[in-house]
Amino acid sequence: MADFHSGNVQANGIDFHYLEMGTGPLVLCLHGFPDNALTYRFLLPALAEAGFHGVAPFMRGYTPTGKPRDGRYQSVLLAQDAVALIPALGADKAFVVGHDWGALATYGAAALAPERVHKVVTLAAAHPGTLLGAMATNYDMIKGGWHAYFFQMPFAELAVAANDYEFLERWWRDASPEYDLPREVIESVKATFRQPGVVTAALNYYRHTFHPANRDPALAVLQEKVATVPTPVPALAFHGTKDRPGRLPAFERMDQFFAKGVEKVVLPGTGHFLHLERPAEVNTKIVEFLSLG
Fold first, then answer.
1. Closest CA to 100 of 42, 186, 31
2. Helix (H, G, I), strand (E, B) or coil at 94
3. pTM for this entry
4. Domain housing 89
């Protein structure tokens, strides 16, 4: 594995721990569930070699990043975190890359502060304008996203942690069925989730975003904005054909939610963790997209 530099920075009231490589224009890389910043173990070196400053923070609640004092985790706050991290890391603007929940934060950051974002790249997540509606009405999407509903249950923490976090490994294998999951990858994820409070924090992303009773009413206007405003900057989006059921159709129908267009890349045979399954292909495309214009 590459030799990453690590650091800490305060942003949006949280102490963020991050991995970084390279110098040049900032590329903020945001991970999803169930994962950590090392999901960008291949992308950060590629960005550094291409003349970018790649930074991958552990998202709010994912140790060693701190937890918010108010205990809030709904998706608009992830977007605000991303926006706040850009100046905190010494940049006026950044390219933003996101996978899974990190992708929702990426879409949201561009909606909230387009003046801070050059371009966005998303991995394995349609724009919330199509994704969230499909989760409520599409049978295949409901089936494929069963965990989002299960995590509303008060015993979900017990299920995730049982048998040395077997849930996490099986989730990865279901989400990327043709990926030969390396032990070091899943053990890194398990190590993160073994840290106190991380499981509850990760599940609260789902609880606070998808369950209306758990949302902060003071964030209602901004939450609506990050869920519905067309992405106002150039976008590149990836999806795999072997990702969970229902997700690819939402991805294919999302063009209306991009004010400056979106280049969509569908990778046959890849699942949810496509950036780890086909890193050379994904990284090359990302670097080309960021380097143009």
1. 31
2. strand
3. 0.97
4. 5-291
